Amino acid sequence: MTTPTNDDGTTSSRDCVVPAFSAHAAGSSGPLLTSHAALILLAAVVVGGVVAVLTYLSASNGAAAVLAGLTVAGASTPVLHTLIGR
Q1: Each residue of 26-81: pLDDT tens digit?
Q2: Contact (CB, 8 A) for 73 and 52
Q3: How far apart are alpha carbons 62 and 15 in whole angstroms?
Q4: 11 forms bridges with which residues in the sheet?
Q5: For the chain, which has fewer Cβ within 10 Å, the N-terminal or C-terminal residue?
């Protein structure tokens, strides 16, 4: 099977098949998570993890350590967003 060509030798688009699904949608506005947001969330997880480990070492209570880590990670996210500017 040959590809149809125009008089000037270029490929004809007359018989082209358009794929039903494209990995890059035409209306795609960018990545799901920007590098700025990823950095802030990663820093919040690190800070929350440090607080969780310190809480566990001081109280020897896993539930309290998890709650403290999650609370600090959540509370540090807006602070980190303010500190780490664009």
Answers
A1: 567 888 999 999 999 999 999 999 999 999 999 999 999 999 999 999 999 999 99
A2: no
A3: 65
A4: 5
A5: N
Comparing CA positions, the residue from 76, 5, 19, 83 lying closest to residue 42 is 76
Q: Which tokens in the block code for residue 86? A: 């664009």
CB 59 within 8 A of CB 65: yes
Separation of alpha carbons 62 and 60, rounded Å: 6
